[in-house]
Amino acid sequence: MSENKQARTAKGVVVSNGMDKSIVVRVDRYVKHPKYKKFVRKSTKIMAHDENNECNVGDTVTVVESRPISKHKSWKLVRIDERAAR
Where, if anywhere, are coiled coils annotated (predicted)? Predict the structure, then answer.
């Protein structure tokens, strides 16, 4: 029973890159309100490992779940999908 388990991936926008080799990524999702049935945007902030310090604030990135790297960091940068307009 060997199942191929894929690691979770997430797309989001970099909101902070002030740390060394770390970025904070905001991942947005839309959920329907249980009573009013309106779609509401909810966001989650993920701390990810950026080995080469190549991300800037505003970049759209893809991150993948990995083993824990530090207390708050358990995601790694896969690629930069879109650079922020300067």
Answer: none
Whole-structure pTM value: 0.86
Provide the residue type at 58 as one letter: G
- Fold adopted by 9-82: OB fold (Dihydrolipoamide Acetyltransferase, E2P) (2.40.50)
User: Hey, where are the domains in the chain?
Assistant: 9-82
Residue 4 has φ and ψ, to the nearest 5°, of: -85, 105
Q: Write the pLDDT tens digit of every residue in 11-46.
A: 999 999 999 999 999 999 999 999 999 999 999 999
